[in-house]
Write a structure and sequence with these properties.
With about 150 residues, the chain is α+β, with helices and mostly antiparallel strands. Helices cover about 45% and strands about 30% of the residues. The strands form two sheets. It has a four-stranded antiparallel beta sheet with strand order 1-2-3-4, covered by helices on one side. Strands 5-6-7 form a three-stranded antiparallel beta sheet, with helices on one face. Strand 3 and strand 4 form a beta hairpin. Helix 1 runs antiparallel to helix 2.
Length: about 150
């Protein structure tokens, strides 16, 4: 495993989506993206010398999810007001679940999409989907890219 390999430093932990887990690792001369889907693992290497740009685009997912969770909480609150006492327990449990989802989204912060551009192609980095985490990762990555590209003579 990469965690036990001294040649790699974890840039981000596993980011889980519905069917995919992804993580990014800093190597001596490359960035390694690890994608785990069902029973397969896919590794993608990006040499620091070949990286031309890291593009970050803000998304509205954060706002949309907040609106959905708040609306559902409000509807459950109204339902709890008009229901009898035995149904209020089930409604409170449901409201608690949506409250946890809202809190998780608020703590995570604004969402984004991140792309890594090389001379050959542009690849989406699935592990970088929250703005705060993406900024930290890009700062660490930028230092390695600058060091690698400064040594290349043209």
């Amino acid at each position: 495993m990469l965690r036990r390999d001294n040649n790699y430093v974890r840039l981000i932990r596993f980011n889980r989506s519905f069917l995919r887990q992804s993580s990014l690792w800093l190597g001596a001369d490359h960035l390694l993206a690890v994608y785990v889907e069902a029973f397969t693992e896919r590794y993608q290497r990006y040499s620091y010398r070949d990286i031309q740009a890291v593009v970050v685009c803000h998304t509205k997912t954060y706002l949309v999810l907040n609106i959905i969770w708040i609306t559902l909480l409000g509807l459950l609150g109204l339902l709890a007001l008009v229901s009898d006492s035995s149904a209020r327990i089930a409604i409170a449990i449901s409201a608690g679940a949506f409250g946890i989802l809202l809190l998780h989204n608020l703590i995570g912060g604004p969402t984004c999409v991140c792309y890594l551009r090389t001379a050959v192609h542009t690849e989406r980095l699935y592990g970088l989907n929250r703005l705060r985490k993406t900024r930290r990762a890009i700062a660490a990555l930028k230092a390695r890219i600058d060091q690698s590209q400064a040594t290349v003579s043209t």
